[in-house]
Design goal:
The protein is about 50% helix and about 15% strand. The protein contains 15 helices and 8 strands. An 8-stranded parallel β-sheet has the order 1-2-3-4-5-6-7-8.
């Protein structure tokens, strides 16, 4: 569906690299691919959500230079542009970069170069969310938030938190989000994916304007009402949810019901090659399996642009492209 302009607010940068690119980077860096990374079919191998997180970490372990992050960023943004995307917020993890010894400046510099090169070649715009990994603990999350808050970068516009929401509840990270929000960064957090509506309710106590996933809010009408009343935007990833078994099918996914209840929604591909997803494909799924019209999908894009953490000048330019 390339004819409808698209905007993506939920995609993990390390998780955009397909096996072929991960292999190419490993060869360039002179390292072997981790043994359990790929299955016999050449695809990423994992058995459940927590195992997926481990596989993600293994793939990220071969990404060791600014050039690697430039290539990952550039190739993903160009692919999005071919599918009609005009804006993407990329969730980047300084924790993963630090584990392999990559400096903060090289990490962000590589991503920024990829954004610049993709804009030059396709016209797409990209920005960066700095993400903490909750299962690395509160102290490390505090360090990541302080890093994001104290080192302004023109492309770093927001702060996110991913990882194991069930084992590491949102309320434990209140200080983390106060630090990020206090520095003027837009804030979002994973909730309501692998834990239920109570996880979403806990996220709503933080200084956030968006929630990554959030779809299990449907289990509690009072939480759905609060999301709608406060205009909290959900970054929905239906293919990821179905592939990982959060919901058994697209037809049983609550995205249409949440939208009907007045909750503002956007679409994201989450970790595209792990789930066989693309941002173009998520729009197609909503059209073919969830009854969305072209006007509905344009509204989804407008919601994403309005909810984006970018500056107002860029937001105005993106609206004009609709």
């Amino acid at each position: 569906m390339p004819s409808i302009p698209k905007a993506e607010l939920h995609v993990h940068l390390e998780g955009t690299a397909p096996p072929e690119l991960v292999h190419r980077i490993a060869v360039r860096n002179g390292v072997d691919l981790p043994e359990r990374l790929l299955g016999e079919d050449g695809r990423f191998r994992y058995t459940d959500f927590l195992d997926f997180l481990r596989t993600y970490d293994l793939a990220a372990s071969v990404m060791r230079t600014g050039e690697d992050y430039r290539d990952i960023t550039y190739e993903y943004l160009c692919a999005c542009a071919r599918g009609g995307a005009i804006y993407v917020e990329l969730t980047a993890s300084p924790d993963h970069a630090a584990i392999v010894g990559l400096s903060d400046s090289d990490h962000l510099g590589g991503i920024a170069q990829g954004i610049d090169d993709a804009r030059r070649d396709t016209g797409i715009e990209g920005r960066i969310l700095i993400s903490a990994v909750r299962n690395f603990g509160v102290e490390q999350a505090v360090r990541v938030a302080e890093y994001a808050a104290s080192r302004p970068h023109p492309y770093v516009v927001g702060f996110s938190m991913a990882g194991d929401e069930a084992g590491f509840p949102a309320g434990d990270f209140a200080e983390v989000f106060q630090t990020a929000a206090g520095a003027g960064l837009g804030c979002t957090i994973h909730a309501g994916e692998w834990a239920g509506a109570d996880s979403v309710r806990a996220a709503l106590t933080l200084p956030i304007t968006r929630i990554a996933h959030g779809v299990r809010a449907i289990e509690d009408p009072s939480v759905v009402s609060e999301l709608a009343d406060r205009g909290i935007v959900l970054e929905c990833c239906p293919t990821s949810n179905v592939v990982l078994g959060v919901f058994p099918s697209y037809e049983e996914h609550p995205l249409p019901a949440l939208r009907a209840a007045g909750v503002p929604l956007t679409l994201g591909s989450d970790d595209p090659p792990y789930f066989g997803a693309t941002i173009d494909g998520e729009y197609d799924v909503c059209a073919s399996r969830m009854g969305f019209s072209d006007d509905d999908l344009r509204e989804v894009t407008l919601t994403a642009i309005d909810a984006a953490f970018c500056d107002e000048r860029l937001r105005t330019a993106l609206r004009e492209r609709l």
